[in-house]
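Thread amino acids onto this structure.
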Protein backbone atom coordinates (compact mmCIF):
# COMPACT_ATOMS: atom_id res chain seq x y z
CA UNK A 1 0.00 0.00 0.00
CA UNK A 2 1.36 3.42 -0.99
CA UNK A 3 1.83 5.67 2.02
CA UNK A 4 -0.20 8.91 1.69
CA UNK A 5 1.61 12.21 1.23
CA UNK A 6 1.06 14.28 4.38
CA UNK A 7 2.07 17.95 4.50
CA UNK A 8 3.75 18.94 7.74
CA UNK A 9 4.78 22.45 6.72
CA UNK A 10 3.49 24.43 3.77
CA UNK A 11 1.80 27.61 2.57
CA UNK A 12 -0.70 28.57 -0.10
CA UNK A 13 0.48 31.69 -1.91
CA UNK A 14 -2.58 33.36 -3.43
CA UNK A 15 -1.69 36.19 -5.82
CA UNK A 16 -4.02 38.88 -7.09
CA UNK A 17 -2.43 41.31 -9.54
CA UNK A 18 -3.65 44.67 -10.79
CA UNK A 19 -2.43 47.27 -13.27
CA UNK A 20 -2.56 50.58 -11.39
CA UNK A 21 -0.39 53.03 -13.40
CA UNK A 22 1.60 53.48 -16.58
CA UNK A 23 4.75 53.46 -14.46
CA UNK A 24 5.71 53.34 -10.78
CA UNK A 25 8.69 55.18 -9.33
CA UNK A 26 9.79 52.47 -6.89
CA UNK A 27 12.26 54.63 -4.99
CA UNK A 28 9.64 57.33 -4.52
CA UNK A 29 7.15 54.67 -3.35
CA UNK A 30 9.59 53.53 -0.67
CA UNK A 31 9.96 57.13 0.52
CA UNK A 32 6.20 57.72 0.64
CA UNK A 33 5.15 54.48 2.34
CA UNK A 34 6.00 54.26 6.04
CA UNK A 35 6.11 50.45 6.11
CA UNK A 36 9.32 48.48 5.75
CA UNK A 37 10.16 47.82 2.11
CA UNK A 38 12.16 44.93 0.68
CA UNK A 39 13.65 44.75 -2.81
CA UNK A 40 13.29 41.38 -4.52
CA UNK A 41 16.57 39.48 -4.59
CA UNK A 42 16.90 35.93 -5.83
CA UNK A 43 19.27 33.78 -3.80
CA UNK A 44 19.26 30.28 -5.29
CA UNK A 45 22.37 28.98 -7.05
CA UNK A 46 22.40 30.26 -10.62
CA UNK A 47 20.10 33.19 -9.82
CA UNK A 48 22.92 35.59 -10.76
CA UNK A 49 22.07 34.74 -14.37
CA UNK A 50 18.61 36.22 -13.95
CA UNK A 51 18.88 39.98 -14.36
CA UNK A 52 16.30 42.50 -13.15
CA UNK A 53 16.94 46.07 -14.25
CA UNK A 54 14.73 47.48 -11.48
CA UNK A 55 13.76 44.78 -8.94
CA UNK A 56 10.22 45.09 -7.55
CA UNK A 57 9.59 46.37 -4.04
CA UNK A 58 7.51 44.53 -1.43
CA UNK A 59 5.67 45.98 1.60
CA UNK A 60 4.40 43.92 4.53
CA UNK A 61 0.72 44.81 4.94
CA UNK A 62 0.00 42.76 8.07
CA UNK A 63 -2.35 39.87 8.86
CA UNK A 64 -6.01 39.69 7.88
CA UNK A 65 -8.71 37.21 8.93
CA UNK A 66 -9.91 35.07 6.05
CA UNK A 67 -13.05 32.97 6.21
CA UNK A 68 -13.01 30.00 3.85
CA UNK A 69 -15.26 26.98 3.47
CA UNK A 70 -12.54 24.90 5.09
CA UNK A 71 -12.44 27.13 8.16
CA UNK A 72 -11.09 30.43 9.47
CA UNK A 73 -7.54 31.36 8.56
CA UNK A 74 -5.18 34.23 9.24
CA UNK A 75 -3.52 35.37 6.01
CA UNK A 76 -0.34 37.45 5.93
CA UNK A 77 -0.55 40.06 3.19
CA UNK A 78 2.30 41.45 1.10
CA UNK A 79 2.04 44.14 -1.57
CA UNK A 80 4.65 44.15 -4.32
CA UNK A 81 5.18 46.97 -6.82
CA UNK A 82 6.65 46.61 -10.30
CA UNK A 83 8.03 49.60 -12.17
CA UNK A 84 5.99 48.74 -15.29
CA UNK A 85 2.79 49.61 -13.40
CA UNK A 86 1.70 46.29 -11.86
CA UNK A 87 0.78 45.80 -8.21
CA UNK A 88 0.65 42.31 -6.73
CA UNK A 89 -1.21 41.49 -3.52
CA UNK A 90 -0.01 38.20 -2.01
CA UNK A 91 -1.95 36.29 0.64
CA UNK A 92 0.14 33.75 2.56
CA UNK A 93 -2.32 31.15 3.85
CA UNK A 94 -0.74 28.47 6.07
CA UNK A 95 -1.55 24.83 5.32
CA UNK A 96 -2.71 23.11 8.52
CA UNK A 97 -0.07 20.57 9.64
CA UNK A 98 -0.84 16.88 9.02
CA UNK A 99 -2.96 17.69 5.93
CA UNK A 100 -2.97 14.89 3.37
CA UNK A 101 -2.40 15.93 -0.22
CA UNK A 102 -5.86 14.72 -1.20
CA UNK A 103 -7.39 16.76 1.65
CA UNK A 104 -5.53 19.85 0.43
CA UNK A 105 -7.53 19.79 -2.82
CA UNK A 106 -10.64 21.26 -1.17
CA UNK A 107 -8.67 24.12 0.42
CA UNK A 108 -6.91 24.92 -2.85
CA UNK A 109 -10.22 24.86 -4.74
CA UNK A 110 -11.61 27.30 -2.16
CA UNK A 111 -8.71 29.70 -2.74
CA UNK A 112 -8.72 29.60 -6.56
CA UNK A 113 -10.82 32.46 -7.98
CA UNK A 114 -12.40 33.20 -4.61
CA UNK A 115 -14.52 36.42 -4.79
CA UNK A 116 -13.82 37.25 -1.12
CA UNK A 117 -10.07 37.08 -1.74
CA UNK A 118 -10.53 39.17 -4.90
CA UNK A 119 -12.39 41.87 -2.96
CA UNK A 120 -9.89 41.87 -0.10
CA UNK A 121 -6.95 42.12 -2.51
CA UNK A 122 -8.58 44.93 -4.49
CA UNK A 123 -9.22 46.91 -1.30
CA UNK A 124 -5.63 46.39 -0.14
CA UNK A 125 -4.35 47.45 -3.57
CA UNK A 126 -6.42 50.64 -3.43
CA UNK A 127 -5.10 51.41 0.04
CA UNK A 128 -1.49 50.87 -0.98
CA UNK A 129 -1.95 53.03 -4.07
CA UNK A 130 -3.36 55.79 -1.89
CA UNK A 131 -0.26 55.75 0.29
CA UNK A 132 2.12 56.01 -2.69
CA UNK A 133 0.02 58.22 -4.99
CA UNK A 134 2.97 60.51 -5.69
CA UNK A 135 4.96 57.59 -7.13
CA UNK A 136 2.30 56.60 -9.68
CA UNK A 137 2.66 57.98 -13.20
CA UNK A 138 -0.74 58.26 -14.89
CA UNK A 139 -2.62 56.18 -12.31
CA UNK A 140 -5.70 54.30 -13.47
CA UNK A 141 -8.06 51.60 -12.26
CA UNK A 142 -8.27 48.79 -14.82
CA UNK A 143 -11.03 46.28 -14.14
CA UNK A 144 -8.90 43.37 -15.33
CA UNK A 145 -6.65 41.40 -13.01
CA UNK A 146 -4.62 38.20 -12.76
CA UNK A 147 -4.93 35.50 -10.14
CA UNK A 148 -2.46 32.70 -9.48
CA UNK A 149 -1.90 30.27 -6.63
CA UNK A 150 1.28 28.48 -5.62
CA UNK A 151 0.99 25.44 -3.35
CA UNK A 152 4.30 25.55 -1.52
CA UNK A 153 5.33 22.51 0.54
CA UNK A 154 8.50 22.74 2.58
CA UNK A 155 8.20 19.43 4.43
CA UNK A 156 6.21 16.21 4.12
CA UNK A 157 5.91 13.75 6.98
CA UNK A 158 8.01 11.37 4.91
CA UNK A 159 10.75 12.34 2.45
CA UNK A 160 9.21 11.52 -0.95
CA UNK A 161 11.10 11.85 -4.20
CA UNK A 162 9.88 14.03 -7.04
CA UNK A 163 8.84 10.93 -8.99
CA UNK A 164 6.75 9.67 -6.07
CA UNK A 165 4.92 13.00 -5.84
CA UNK A 166 4.30 13.07 -9.59
CA UNK A 167 2.83 9.56 -9.36
CA UNK A 168 0.24 10.73 -6.82
CA UNK A 169 -3.32 10.82 -8.18
CA UNK A 170 -3.98 13.84 -5.96
CA UNK A 171 -1.47 16.14 -7.67
CA UNK A 172 -3.49 16.83 -10.87
CA UNK A 173 -6.63 17.31 -8.77
CA UNK A 174 -4.77 19.74 -6.55
CA UNK A 175 -3.59 21.89 -9.44
CA UNK A 176 -7.01 21.80 -11.11
CA UNK A 177 -8.91 22.39 -7.88
CA UNK A 178 -11.06 19.39 -8.79
CA UNK A 179 -12.66 18.34 -5.51
CA UNK A 180 -15.17 15.96 -7.12
CA UNK A 181 -14.32 12.28 -6.81
CA UNK A 182 -15.17 11.58 -10.44
CA UNK A 183 -12.02 10.25 -12.17
CA UNK A 184 -10.02 12.69 -14.29
CA UNK A 185 -8.96 11.43 -17.70
CA UNK A 186 -5.38 10.29 -18.16
CA UNK A 187 -4.82 12.80 -20.96
CA UNK A 188 -5.92 15.68 -18.72
CA UNK A 189 -3.70 14.48 -15.88
CA UNK A 190 -0.74 14.22 -18.24
CA UNK A 191 -1.37 17.71 -19.58
CA UNK A 192 -1.54 19.22 -16.08
CA UNK A 193 1.78 17.77 -14.88
CA UNK A 194 3.75 17.88 -18.11
CA UNK A 195 5.63 21.04 -17.05
CA UNK A 196 7.44 19.37 -14.15
CA UNK A 197 11.02 20.21 -13.14
CA UNK A 198 13.44 18.99 -10.48
CA UNK A 199 16.98 19.95 -9.58
CA UNK A 200 17.54 17.39 -6.85
CA UNK A 201 15.63 14.14 -6.49
CA UNK A 202 13.70 15.53 -3.52
CA UNK A 203 12.45 18.84 -4.95
CA UNK A 204 9.78 19.50 -7.56
CA UNK A 205 8.05 22.28 -9.47
CA UNK A 206 4.92 21.67 -11.52
CA UNK A 207 3.67 24.71 -13.43
CA UNK A 208 0.09 24.95 -14.65
CA UNK A 209 -1.80 27.88 -16.19
CA UNK A 210 -3.69 28.86 -13.01
CA UNK A 211 -1.56 27.32 -10.26
CA UNK A 212 1.74 25.68 -9.48
CA UNK A 213 2.98 23.07 -7.02
CA UNK A 214 6.37 23.64 -5.42
CA UNK A 215 8.11 21.14 -3.12
CA UNK A 216 11.21 22.89 -1.80
CA UNK A 217 12.87 21.44 1.34
CA UNK A 218 15.41 24.29 1.25
CA UNK A 219 12.55 26.79 1.82
CA UNK A 220 13.89 28.99 -1.01
CA UNK A 221 11.30 31.49 -2.29
CA UNK A 222 12.92 32.00 -5.68
CA UNK A 223 10.51 29.74 -7.59
CA UNK A 224 7.29 31.45 -6.59
CA UNK A 225 8.97 34.87 -6.96
CA UNK A 226 9.74 33.97 -10.57
CA UNK A 227 6.18 32.76 -11.11
CA UNK A 228 4.94 36.09 -9.73
CA UNK A 229 7.12 38.02 -12.19
CA UNK A 230 5.78 35.95 -15.11
CA UNK A 231 2.19 36.62 -14.04
CA UNK A 232 2.93 40.35 -13.72
CA UNK A 233 4.24 40.32 -17.29
CA UNK A 234 1.08 38.55 -18.47
CA UNK A 235 -1.06 41.15 -16.70
CA UNK A 236 0.75 44.01 -18.42
CA UNK A 237 0.49 42.42 -21.86
CA UNK A 238 -3.24 41.88 -21.37
CA UNK A 239 -3.66 45.49 -20.26
CA UNK A 240 -1.77 47.00 -23.19
CA UNK A 241 -3.49 44.66 -25.62
CA UNK A 242 -6.78 46.16 -24.47
CA UNK A 243 -5.34 49.69 -24.62
CA UNK A 244 -4.23 49.13 -28.21
CA UNK A 245 -7.67 47.75 -29.13
CA UNK A 246 -9.30 50.85 -27.70
CA UNK A 247 -6.82 53.25 -29.31
CA UNK A 248 -7.06 51.61 -32.73
CA UNK A 249 -10.86 51.99 -32.68
CA UNK A 250 -10.49 55.64 -31.68
CA UNK A 251 -7.93 56.29 -34.41
CA UNK A 252 -10.12 54.66 -37.08
CA UNK A 253 -13.11 56.73 -35.90
CA UNK A 254 -11.06 59.95 -36.05
CA UNK A 255 -9.82 59.11 -39.53
CA UNK A 256 -13.36 58.37 -40.69
CA UNK A 257 -14.64 61.70 -39.35
CA UNK A 258 -11.86 63.64 -41.05
CA UNK A 259 -12.10 61.76 -44.37
CA UNK A 260 -13.49 63.87 -47.18
CA UNK A 261 -13.13 67.17 -45.37
CA UNK A 262 -11.70 70.11 -47.20
CA UNK A 263 -8.09 70.40 -46.09
CA UNK A 264 -7.13 73.81 -44.78
CA UNK A 265 -4.45 75.50 -46.75
CA UNK A 266 -2.66 76.23 -43.51
CA UNK A 267 -3.08 73.00 -41.58
CA UNK A 268 -3.89 69.36 -42.33
CA UNK A 269 -6.83 67.78 -40.49
CA UNK A 270 -4.57 64.80 -39.84
CA UNK A 271 -1.72 66.71 -38.17
CA UNK A 272 -3.03 66.39 -34.59
CA UNK A 273 -4.00 62.77 -35.15
CA UNK A 274 -0.51 62.03 -36.47
CA UNK A 275 1.04 63.47 -33.32
CA UNK A 276 -1.30 61.44 -31.10
CA UNK A 277 -0.42 58.24 -32.93
CA UNK A 278 3.28 59.04 -32.60
CA UNK A 279 2.86 59.50 -28.82
CA UNK A 280 1.05 56.16 -28.64
CA UNK A 281 3.90 54.46 -30.52
CA UNK A 282 6.45 55.86 -28.09
CA UNK A 283 4.38 54.83 -25.04
CA UNK A 284 3.97 51.25 -26.28
CA UNK A 285 7.67 50.98 -27.14
CA UNK A 286 8.59 52.24 -23.65
CA UNK A 287 6.15 49.80 -22.04
CA UNK A 288 7.53 46.86 -24.02
CA UNK A 289 11.06 47.71 -22.95
CA UNK A 290 10.08 47.92 -19.26
CA UNK A 291 8.27 44.57 -19.33
CA UNK A 292 11.11 42.84 -21.18
CA UNK A 293 13.65 44.28 -18.74
CA UNK A 294 11.69 43.07 -15.70
CA UNK A 295 13.54 39.76 -16.03
CA UNK A 296 16.32 38.80 -18.44
CA UNK A 297 17.72 35.29 -18.70
CA UNK A 298 21.36 34.47 -19.35
CA UNK A 299 21.96 30.74 -19.72
CA UNK A 300 19.84 27.59 -19.44
CA UNK A 301 19.98 26.63 -15.77
CA UNK A 302 17.21 25.37 -13.49
CA UNK A 303 15.51 28.68 -12.62
CA UNK A 304 15.58 29.72 -16.27
CA UNK A 305 13.84 26.50 -17.31
CA UNK A 306 11.13 27.03 -14.69
CA UNK A 307 10.61 30.62 -15.85
CA UNK A 308 10.39 29.58 -19.51
CA UNK A 309 7.88 26.88 -18.57
CA UNK A 310 5.76 29.50 -16.80
CA UNK A 311 5.94 31.79 -19.84
CA UNK A 312 4.73 28.98 -22.10
CA UNK A 313 2.04 27.75 -19.72
CA UNK A 314 0.65 31.25 -19.17
CA UNK A 315 0.51 31.70 -22.96
CA UNK A 316 2.58 34.88 -22.75
CA UNK A 317 4.06 34.53 -26.29
CA UNK A 318 0.54 34.71 -27.80
CA UNK A 319 -0.23 37.91 -25.90
CA UNK A 320 3.16 39.32 -26.91
CA UNK A 321 2.41 38.53 -30.56
CA UNK A 322 -0.97 40.23 -30.26
CA UNK A 323 0.60 43.39 -28.82
CA UNK A 324 3.36 43.34 -31.46
CA UNK A 325 0.83 42.93 -34.25
CA UNK A 326 -1.27 45.85 -33.06
CA UNK A 327 1.85 47.94 -32.50
CA UNK A 328 2.76 47.25 -36.14
CA UNK A 329 -0.73 48.41 -37.18
CA UNK A 330 -0.22 51.65 -35.26
CA UNK A 331 3.11 52.15 -37.05
CA UNK A 332 1.42 51.60 -40.44
CA UNK A 333 -1.28 54.13 -39.55
CA UNK A 334 1.40 56.61 -38.51
CA UNK A 335 3.13 56.21 -41.88
CA UNK A 336 -0.21 56.69 -43.65
CA UNK A 337 -1.01 59.82 -41.68
CA UNK A 338 2.50 61.13 -42.21
CA UNK A 339 2.01 60.72 -45.94
CA UNK A 340 -1.35 62.52 -45.78
CA UNK A 341 0.15 65.41 -43.80
CA UNK A 342 3.13 65.69 -46.16
CA UNK A 343 0.73 65.56 -49.13
CA UNK A 344 -1.24 68.44 -47.60
CA UNK A 345 1.95 70.43 -47.09
CA UNK A 346 2.96 69.77 -50.70
CA UNK A 347 -0.43 70.97 -51.91
CA UNK A 348 -0.05 74.09 -49.78
CA UNK A 349 3.37 74.87 -51.27
CA UNK A 350 2.12 74.23 -54.81
CA UNK A 351 -0.89 76.45 -54.18
CA UNK A 352 1.32 79.23 -52.85
CA UNK A 353 3.58 78.94 -55.89
CA UNK A 354 0.59 79.17 -58.25
CA UNK A 355 -0.76 82.17 -56.35
CA UNK A 356 2.62 83.90 -56.52
CA UNK A 357 2.81 83.28 -60.27
CA UNK A 358 -0.71 84.61 -60.75
CA UNK A 359 0.17 87.66 -58.67
CA UNK A 360 3.25 88.30 -60.79
CA UNK A 361 1.18 87.96 -63.97
CA UNK A 362 -1.45 90.31 -62.59
CA UNK A 363 1.12 92.88 -61.55
CA UNK A 364 2.79 92.67 -64.93
CA UNK A 365 -0.55 93.11 -66.66
CA UNK A 366 -1.36 96.15 -64.54
CA UNK A 367 1.97 97.74 -65.43
CA UNK A 368 1.34 97.20 -69.16
CA UNK A 369 -2.10 98.78 -69.14
CA UNK A 370 -1.77 102.43 -70.26
CA UNK A 371 -2.98 105.01 -67.74
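Threaded sequence (371 positions):
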Amino acid sequence: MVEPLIVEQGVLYAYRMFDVADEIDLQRAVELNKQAAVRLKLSREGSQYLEMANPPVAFLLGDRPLGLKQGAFSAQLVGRLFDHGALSILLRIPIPPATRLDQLVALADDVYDNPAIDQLARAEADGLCGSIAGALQTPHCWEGSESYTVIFVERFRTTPTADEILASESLPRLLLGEAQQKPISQSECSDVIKHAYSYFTDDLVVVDWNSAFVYEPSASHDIHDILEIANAQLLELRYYDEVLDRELVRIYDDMERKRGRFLSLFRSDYANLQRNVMVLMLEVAEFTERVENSLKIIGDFYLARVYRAAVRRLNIPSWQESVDRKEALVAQIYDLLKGEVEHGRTMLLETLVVLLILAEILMATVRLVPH
